[in-house]
Q: What sequence folds into this?
């Protein structure tokens, strides 16, 4: 395996026979062919597959123009979006940021905050209170401009920008990432003269982290988006190979072999809190891509060792319908050793001088062994360290593996018809014109 993303399958072998693996691998190769030949359902949404190799310098230059425009007088950038329109950026920024960056207040780039990902009145009110006190700008991300949560947030933030700075300066402080030619947000951006970036027509939201949807906020936070794309480009090269050395093919093979044996839930495990929102991005990617037609592995996540003191009991001894995929980080970016205590009241002097990361690694290994012994298959995915290059590779690896995996269960990986159901009900209950009959039906159900 290539050293960017390494798969360790030792803890899966006891749970899947050679014959089962061979059958699953054959399906994975067939699905790889469907994906790469663009012959499957949803093939008009495959623009993400060659984004790393097709993204040219003009995209980076335009993004860094915005970074340079705002770096002197903008303290906070509000990224407005929901689902794939913010999760990829937040996953990358949280993974790369100092855990206590806000408290240290030493960042020479704007702080990134988020809106449009919920409809909480308290959250939005408190955000507006913050923005009243600070110099801010916003990046609004939506293909249509009519998705309720971000549209509501943008109304409020746009109003505050115009009240605080006037319409002319507000225009300089708003960037829209949207459709190339249509939709309410594109129309407004053209009308007002906002700077814009394009969400390609053939890239869906949950596959958009390597477009300006993810790259612009990450660059504004001060991280190297060219390195992210370099890592993704190398993984694009690796994933294009029709080979058992392709980690995306092998990951899809293993998870579907386990699924066919009744393992219905996959838990993505990390041992570094910086990766918590990477797991949230991963959950949307697989949940929205595979969860259709009463099929699909349910994606969940835990943050260890924290969650070993909450979810660990269930994983160890609960219903045997789960398997784990552990993201291991080979090398930390910092070093810290445990000090000696002359009193040794806690009995931990045997750890004196050991790096904290060694304790973390042994907790990871010990937990994997315990869970395997408890009947939980375990896939290990190792990256060398947390940095822009490796994150870019990891994003692309999971996207490609997801496309293969969904085709293996004969699912369109690129639509989300079920998401519309709640919107129809919400619009009806809120009194949207044209939904009156639906509103009466829904209200009648709970009277």
A:
């Amino acid at each position: 395996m290539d050293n960017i993303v390494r798969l360790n399958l030792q803890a899966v072998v006891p749970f899947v026979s050679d014959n089962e693996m061979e059958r699953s691998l054959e399906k994975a190769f067939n699905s790889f062919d469907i994906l790469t030949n663009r012959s499957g359902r949803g093939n008009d949404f495959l623009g993400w597959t060659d984004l790393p190799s097709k993204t040219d310098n003009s995209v980076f230059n335009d993004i860094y123009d915005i970074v340079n425009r705002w770096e002197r007088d903008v303290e906070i950038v509000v990224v407005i979006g929901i689902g794939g329109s913010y999760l990829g950026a937040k996953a990358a920024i949280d993974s790369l940021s100092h855990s206590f960056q806000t408290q240290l207040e030493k960042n020479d780039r704007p702080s990134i905050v988020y809106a449009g990902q919920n409809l909480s009145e308290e959250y939005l009110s408190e955000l507006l209170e913050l923005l009243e006190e600070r110099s801010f700008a916003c990046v609004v991300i939506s293909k249509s401009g009519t998705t309720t949560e971000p549209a509501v947030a943008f109304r409020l933030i746009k109003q505050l920008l115009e009240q605080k700075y006037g319409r002319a300066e507000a225009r300089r402080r708003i960037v829209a990432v949207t459709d190339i030619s249509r939709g309410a947000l594109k129309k407004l951006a053209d009308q007002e003269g906002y700077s814009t970036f394009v969400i390609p027509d053939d890239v869906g939201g949950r596959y958009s982290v390597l477009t300006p949807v993810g790259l612009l906020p990450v660059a504004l936070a001060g991280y190297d988006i060219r390195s992210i794309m370099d890592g993704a480009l190398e993984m694009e090269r690796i994933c294009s190979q029709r080979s058992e050395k392709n980690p995306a093919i092998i990951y899809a093979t293993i998870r579907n072999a386990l699924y066919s044996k009744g393992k219905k839930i996959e838990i993505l495990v990390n041992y570094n809190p910086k990766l918590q929102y990477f797991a949230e991005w991963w959950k949307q990617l697989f949940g929205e891509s595979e969860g259709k037609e009463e099929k699909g592995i349910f994606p969940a996540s835990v943050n260890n060792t924290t969650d070993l003191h909450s979810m660990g009991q269930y994983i160890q001894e609960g219903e045997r319908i789960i398997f784990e995929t552990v993201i291991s980080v080979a090398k930390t970016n910092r070093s810290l050793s445990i000090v000696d205590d002359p009193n040794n009241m806690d009995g931990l002097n045997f750890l004196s001088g050991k790096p904290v990361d060694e304790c973390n690694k042994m907790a990871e290994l010990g937990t994997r062994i315990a869970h395997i012994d408890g009947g939980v298959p375990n896939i290990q995915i190792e990256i060398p360290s947390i940095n822009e290059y490796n994150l870019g590779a990891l994003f692309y690896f999971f996207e490609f593996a997801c496309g293969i995996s969904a085709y293996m269960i004969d699912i369109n990986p690129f639509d989300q018809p079920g998401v519309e159901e709640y919107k129809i009900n919400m619009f009806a209950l809120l009194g949207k014109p044209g939904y009156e009959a639906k509103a009466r039906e829904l209200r009648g159900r709970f009277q």
Q: What stands out?
A: The first strand starts at residue 6 and ends at 8.
